[in-house]
Design a protein that fits this description.
two-stranded antiparallel ribbon; globular; metal-binding; Mps1 binder-like protein; MOB_kinase_act_fam; zinc
């Protein structure tokens, strides 16, 4: 995937982003293996701008997902995964712009399309501003929510179709860490509709209390 080969995120040029990035990385280091810690790690730091925090976490989550995909890319081929699905629980169609008719594509094509699209979102300075003087667009949180929604689908497919291979490669702990960051983040900021989470609900309940998951079902999400 092009996303995995790129050198830097455009958004990383922001000095404020680097400071927040260091804050998040420090929090994440302290939380390894600690599910409650993940919940704390994604909380908006006191006095920080919400959109800056959302942008930085989104970039980190996308980067982590690209590394997960790099582990799967060789084994997730059209002959094995002809459609983008999460077992029998969900199947996903691809639409380039959200307006054209969605179509069936292989899992690898879907996921590579997602990363190309995520890259174009991150590179668009009208959505993810580089300078601290530039403002985020009014609908910025919807852009973030759509990115997170599509990346969640990647994890849904990976856990259902490639988990055993990744476990055999010794990648299970890293996979779980990346997924926890995404899940606690999306739930903290009410980004994605609870229906999207259904394929991985049993896994999510392992990482947090059942009541936390059940409460989220009543949340009014962004997408």
């Amino acid at each position: 995937s092009k996303f995995g080969r790129r050198k830097t995120l455009v958004y990383n040029k922001s000095n404020k982003h680097e400071k927040l990035n260091a804050t998040l990385r420090m929090s994440m280091k302290r939380t390894l293996g600690d599910n409650d810690g993940f919940r704390d790690a994604v909380l908006l730091p006191h006095g920080e701008d919400l959109n800056e925090w959302l942008a930085m976490n989104t970039a980190e989550i996308a980067e982590a997902a690209s590394l997960v995909w790099a582990q799967c890319e060789v084994i997730c081929v059209p002959s094995i995964c002809p459609t983008m699905s999460a077992g029998t629980k969900a199947s996903y169609l691809w639409s380039n712009d959200g307006k054209s008719k969605p179509k069936v594509v292989s899992a690898s094509e879907y996921i590579n399309n997602v990363f190309d699209w995520v890259q174009s979102e991150l590179d668009n300075e009208e959505i993810f501003p580089v300078s601290e003087e530039e403002k985020f667009p009014r609908n910025f949180q919807k852009h973030v929510a759509m990115i997170i929604k599509r990346l969640f689908r990647l994890y849904s497919h990976v856990y259902f179709s490639h988990f055993e291979e990744l476990r055999n490669q010794g990648f299970e702990a890293h996979l779980n860490t990346c997924f926890k960051h995404l899940t606690f983040f999306l739930m903290e900021f009410k980004l994605v509709n609870a229906k999207e989470l259904i394929p991985l609900r049993s896994l999510i309940k392992k990482f947090m209390s059942s009541s936390t998951y059940d409460d989220y079902k009543n949340v009014q999400s962004i997408v």
